[in-house]
Known about the structure:
By secondary structure, this protein is an alpha+beta fold. Helices cover 20% and strands 34% of the residues. It has a 5-stranded antiparallel β-sheet. Strand 3 and strand 4 form a beta hairpin. The longest helix has 18 residues. It starts with a strand and ends in a 21-residue tail after the last helix.
Amino acid sequence: xPAIFEYQRNVTAHEIDGLGHVGNVEYVRWLQDAAIxxxxxxxxxxxxxxxxxAGWVVRSHQIEYLAPAYLDDQxxxxxxxxxxxxxxxxxxxxxYRVPSPTETPNADEAADWQRLAIAETLWVFISFxxxxxxxxxxxxxxxxxxxxxxxPLDELPPRSRD
Length: 162
């Protein structure tokens, strides 16, 4: 499974705010959706956490908005685990607008991908019964490859184009 996961989506009408672009809360929803999809791809879907009786809750989000997204934009949220230790995990994200499959490819492929936001979420692992933090089990720790948290975003491994 990939260390850097790509979650793709189209911007829909219900995500547009009064200013005519995607509302801020929608970006946060995309972060969570991407994290859940990445976890499922690594063998840890929501149901498996429920069977374990423990799972992740958000401690904090940090997001920097760089450019707006609009109705019908194609968006990719890239996410990776930057740190997973003890009871916590730091997950990072990049959100891009990408050309739709019907657009003619640009000769300069890098110009096609516009970065809309960068973000990170601090997750805490808790027992569902006690609601208290608990140590992340080894089988979850080994399910995720760590991508160095101090790696500059421009030096991350290349995006997949599949």
